[in-house]
Amino acid sequence: MMSRRPLIAGNWKMNCLKSDGTALAAGIAEKYAAAVNPKCDVLVCPPAIWILPVVDAVKGRIAVGAEDAHAAESGAHTGDISVPMIKDAGASFVIVGHSERRTDHHETDAEVKAKAEAVISHGLTAIICIGETEAERDAGKTIEVCRTQIQGSVPDKATAENVVIAYEPVWAIGTGRTPTTQDVADVHAAVRAEIAAKLGKETADGMRILYGGSVKPSNAAELMALADVDGALVGGASLKVADFWAIIETCL
Ligand code: PEP
Q1: Is the CB of 127 under 6 A from ligand 1?
Q2: CA of 196: how far to CAs of 6, 70, 72, 76, 109, in Å?
Q3: Does ligand 1 lie within 6 Å of residue 234's CB atom?
Q4: Fewest CB atoms less than 10 Å from the CB: which of 25, 55, 62, 159?
Q5: Beta carbon of 243 within 6 Å of any ligand 1 atom
Q6: Residue 61: helix, strand or coil by DSSP?
Q7: For 110-140, what is each residue's pLDDT tens digit?
Q8: Rounded CA gap, 206 and 15, in Å?
Q9: How many helices (H) and strands (E) does the chain have?
Q10: pTM across the whole model
């Protein structure tokens, strides 16, 4: 099996003023720079308005990403931000299809796919989020929902280099609740099998699949030890240097 370098990614959502955000990013970047031979990649995704100062603050030591992007290059889309703008600001990743975007902004799989296509066409990496709601889980549809989202949201041009999948059960995001490790292992294995069906086994074996949903220092080691879990997408616990660093340390 191809070895996959874990990625620990922080999604700040709509949090942090400039001084808090730059201090947080610089704090993580300094610790990462001091780590000897780190065995994982680290990414912070601040609100778009803070991408530029955060890129300055991390001094190239860790990666910076955006939380969303419009699929178009430019044009009449008031309030939106394009992938070329994100790239120009120095970011290298874009989260697309986060459940909060799918819910709050009614984003469909087709829109998420178009966004991911824009991200990869500009040489950035798309983190494509998938995951079931609580009702879908209760109805036994978790794997079916993830498979449909993969088929609908992942571009045909996706490779192990330009796409990362984040499996985030919607009911686990920001709630403190997590699936059992067996459930996470089962869904990640099913996600990898579906990627293999869509893009081939080699691509699937190399593609990173992150787990997201109430990852914290106390549960990270157990989750990160699972065979098909290649890192984490972290919301709340990415907002404090000590907590985010403790999660990073489980893969370091
Ligand atoms: C997220 O927003 O992607 C997330 C996983 O949030 P939290 O870690 O707070 O559950």
Answers
A1: no
A2: 19, 28, 29, 38, 19
A3: yes
A4: 159
A5: no
A6: coil
A7: 999 999 999 999 999 999 999 999 999 999 9
A8: 32
A9: 11, 8
A10: 0.98
Q: Which two tokens stand for residue 185?
A: 């292992």
Two structure tokens written together for 62: 């860790």
Q: Which residues contact 107 (CB under 8 A, 6 or more apart)?
A: 97, 101
To the query of whether residue 98 is one of the catalytic residues in this protein, the response is yes
Whole-angstrom CA distances from 116 to 31, 123, 160, 162, 193 are 31, 11, 13, 9, 20
Closest ligand 1 atom to the C-alpha of 168?
5
168 is known as an active-site residue? yes
The two three-digit tokens of residue 33, written as one number: 């720079």
**CATH of range 7-249; options 3.90.580.10, 3.30.930.10, 3.40.630.30, 3.20.20.70:** 3.20.20.70
User: Residue 130 and residue 65: Cα distance in Å, rounded?
Assistant: 18
Q: Is 233 a pocket residue for ligand 1 (Cβ < 6 Å)? A: yes
**Spatial separation of the C-alpha atoms in residues 100 and 82, rounded to whole Å:** 19
Query: Residue 236: CB within 6 Å of ligand 1?
Result: yes
Nearest-CA residue for atom 8 of ligand 1:
235
Residue with CA at minimum distance from ligand 1 atom 3 = 235
Span 27-69, pLDDT tens digits: 999 999 999 999 999 999 999 999 999 999 999 999 999 999 9
- The residue length of the chain stands at 252
- Residue ranges per structural domain of the chain: 7-249
